[in-house]
Write a structure and sequence with these properties.
Helices cover 63% and strands 1% of the residues. The longest helix has 24 residues. The chain is globular.
Length: 498
């Protein structure tokens, strides 16, 4: 059942399904009668509560010093009045980065107070294991380079070493830091080193874009090592190059984009631990670049990693935090993409209403068209992609007939020149059709998939093929299933042998 579309009573922009009020957060904060004075934030007790992460005490002190009611806080933040009351009285805690960001943004926390939130994360004398991306280490340029050198297989960490995944509370903390850590100046490591010019940066970006294009058509199997070498070259420029502040941030932006793509190629090749290390390092590079769209992009891949590896709660948190970070940008396509990542997390958590509400909002944003700040690397988002994600959510929710209908609607608008992506989409459509009981149509779609996979190197696609063939075995007595399974076994053997 579709939720009704609600709009802000002031600016008429669409309200999030998580906002029970009548004003969007921006309009709420712009209302003169509802604001926390800067002086209230400077109160000693407020600052101590902020540094100690005692948000109930923080909220109570801010209200006392600004004259706001709990109802006012609800209007400013979108949090329910009952939650605000429970928070102040110690019965509830803020359990996710997006809830904390909602609260602090809604209350208008001054930007220069962000470092107070990092107090619990300050570096201690404890030396962390070298193979774990420790969230207690600072968000500095040096740390970004070191993190990505390790993730990309530098001298400090053997590339084939088994890596420990970051999840749960540790991942939540890491995501939160990316939103609140101050951005340091970018200073060249070697002022007399190789001069980094705009032409050089453009050339590096062109290489990354071409690798991205090849992945969409042929898969990542032959790209991960090339991308890793490309990333290491750029990290060398960060360490040994000569550049000014603006150029350094531009270089960090290309590093972030390349690290995201390298992580994706690695993930598509089946190395999930290594991929997460690259995504986490990419988030650091995006932070250094100062571009919230790149931060959102890195978080979107952290979300994919989460819902694909059994941590769907992390997917929801990462996607929502990404939307908060990029909230001031005119980027409807970016927000639509993030909502699909959030929806997949909700679906894996069996939160059907939330998943479908996020998809409805994504569809609405996509129909608005591209915004002025939508990034060029998001060229692939369209209504077909959102319909395909809806089909995947229905599959996860155990609603195969609705999944098959969504995939059928998506076929007419999805790009077919991106062969790997198209093959994965069709494999999910085939599974939906078979689970809905239509074996002949499902096996026919499966035959289409098998005709596309030659020359595509992708562990994730192989997993999709395996699941699709496993689904067809339930209908082994039918002629269409027997023919499909026989051809599928031959192709899977060929893919295993190569």
């Amino acid at each position: 059942m579709k939720l009704p579309i609600r709009t802000c009573s002031n600016c008429l922009n669409r309200l999030s399904q998580y906002n029970p009020g009548t004003l969007c957060a921006l309009c709420s904060r712009s209302t003169p009668a509802l604001r926390v004075p800067d002086g209230a934030w400077r109160d000693r007790g407020v600052l101590e509560a902020l540094a100690a992460w005692e948000f109930g005490d923080l909220l109570r002190r801010l209200r006392q010093r600004s004259g706001l009611t709990q109802t006012d806080v609800r209007s400013l933040t979108g949090l329910t009045q009952s939650f605000v009351s429970d928070l102040e009285n110690g019965r509830k805690r803020l359990g996710s980065p997006e809830a904390l960001i909602d609260l602090l943004n809604g209350l208008g926390m001054p930007a220069d107070l962000g470092p107070y939130l990092l107090t619990p994360f300050k570096v201690t004398d404890r030396k962390p294991p070298s193979d774990i991306p420790d969230p207690e280490l600072p968000w500095t340029v040096n740390r970004m380079v070191a993190s990505l050198e390790a993730a990309a297989g530098g001298a400090t960490v053997k590339r084939r070493k088994v890596l420990t995944a970051l999840g749960g509370a540790g991942l939540t903390r890491y995501v939160l830091q990316s939103a609140v850590a101050p951005i340091e100046p970018v200073v060249a490591f070697a002022p007399d080193g190789t001069k980094v010019t705009k032409l050089l940066i453009d050339s590096l970006q062109t290489t990354t874009d071409e690798l991205r294009r090849q992945d969409a058509s042929s898969g990542s199997g032959t790209l991960a090592d090339t991308a890793r070498a490309h990333l290491q070259l750029m990290l060398g420029l960060m360490k040994r190059g000569s550049y000014d502040e603006p150029t350094g941030r531009q270089l960090a932006a290309v590093v972030a984009d390349t690290a995201i793509q390298t992580g994706w190629f690695t993930f598509d090749a089946g190395a999930q631990g290594e991929a997460q290390r690259l995504f986490l390092g990419a988030l650091r590079a995006a932070h250094v670049s100062g571009d919230p769209r790149l931060q959102a992009g890195a978080l979107s891949y952290i979300a994919i990693h989460g819902y694909s590896t059994g941590d769907p709660g992390a997917a929801v948190s990462a996607a929502r935090a990404a939307r908060q970070i990029s909230r001031s940008r005119d980027a409807p396509f970016l927000h639509a993409m993030l909502l699909t990542r959030q929806a997949r997390g909700h679906a894996r958590l069996n939160e059907g209403d939330r998943a479908l509400a996020a998809l409805d909002e994504a569809q609405h944003l996509c129909e608005e068209g591209s915004g002025e700040d939508d990034p060029p690397w998001l060229y692939w988002i369209n209504t077909g992609e959102i319909l395909g994600q809806r089909g995947s959510c229905y599959l996860d929710l155990g609603r195969p007939a609705e999944a098959a209908a969504a995939f059928a609607a998506a076929r007419g608008v999805l790009k077919r020149d991106e062969t790997r992506t198209h093959a994965q989409f069709l494999s999910r459509a085939a599974m939906a059709q078979m689970r809905a009981g239509d074996a002949d149509v499902g096996c026919s779609t499966g035959q289409e998939v098998l005709s596309l996979v030659d020359g595509i190197h992708s562990a994730r696609l192989d997993e999709h093929l395996h699941l699709m063939l496993l689904e067809a075995r339930r209908f082994g007595s039918t002629a269409s299933a027997r023919s499909f399974l026989e051809r599928g076994r031959e192709i899977m053997k060929e893919r295993t042998d190569t």
